[in-house]
Amino acid sequence: MAKRLVVLGVLAALGLAPVARADGDPASDYLLGQPTFIPPDVGVPRAYADQLNATVREAKARGYTIRVGLIGSRYDMGSVSILYKKPKQYSRFLGQELAFVYKNRLLIVMPNGLAVSRAGKLLPPEQAVVERLPAPGGNGARLASAASRAVIRLAAKNGIVVPSAPLASSGRTTPSSHTTSDRLTLIVVALAAALAFGGSILYRRRAARGP
User: Fold this and answer.
1) Residue 71 belongs to a domain with what CATH number?
2) What is the pLDDT of residues 108-160, one digit of tens each?
3) Helices then strands (H, E): number in the chain?
4) β-strand 113-118 against 105-110: which pairing, if any?
5) Sheet hosting strand 105-110, strand order edge to edge
6) Which H or E run contains 126?
7) 172 CB-near residues (< 8 Å, 6+ apart)
8) What is the pLDDT of residue 187?
């Protein structure tokens, strides 16, 4: 019964004026001040994240402003997880939240599909564009890649040509992987030093005892 009331409350909010930001979904905080929301738990490779950010920046520079939220898991929804895998509903919901500060286009990318809204209202002509794209699934690289393609096609729908940003070299690693590698190196060095130090002490004790 309680769950049904929550559902009804969320659905009612979707049809009303912009709601207060008390839901706790992470994307609403990020997208107030930056053009993309790329949650860390999805595992988006840095090259694909950079490509998406570059595409959104280039689109804006050419006259097509849009913000993008990637949602790869229920966890990324915060306290509105009931809207997970409901990209249209969440796009409207999030668009209403952001409308106090940002009133332009919003693209939501979920494993099962994409949705476009503006100030909390769906845009049927542009929605038709993203619905022609295949569902990306939960893979981080595919989510980001689908978002980049969608931005390019949406801009083209409005007569704006946005070139596809190149992916960085596949050998490029993220800062987190560098950090992990550095830590492993430090551990190995520390162990080697400890073994060498222990061996030196043992040798000295034996030498002190004599033959």
Assistant:
1) 3.10.310.50
2) 999 999 999 999 999 999 999 999 999 999 999 999 999 999 999 999 999 99
3) 7, 5
4) antiparallel
5) 36-37, 66-70, 105-110, 113-118, 121-122
6) helix 124-131
7) 46, 47
8) 42
Selection from 36, 117, 110, 48 nearest residue 74 by Cα:
110
Angle, nearest 10°, between helix axes 87-98 and 26-33? 50
The answer to whether residue 62 is domain-embedded is: yes
Q: Per-residue b/e over 186-206, b at no fewer than 16 CB within 10 Å? A: eeeeeeeeeeeeeeeeeeeee
- Look at the block and give the residue holding tokens 């949406």: 154
Alpha helices in 21-82 (DSSP H): 26-33, 46-61
pLDDT digits (tens, 9 = 90+) for 80-108: 999 999 999 999 999 999 999 999 999 99
Segments forming the whole domain that contains residue 69? 2-157
Residue 164 identity: S
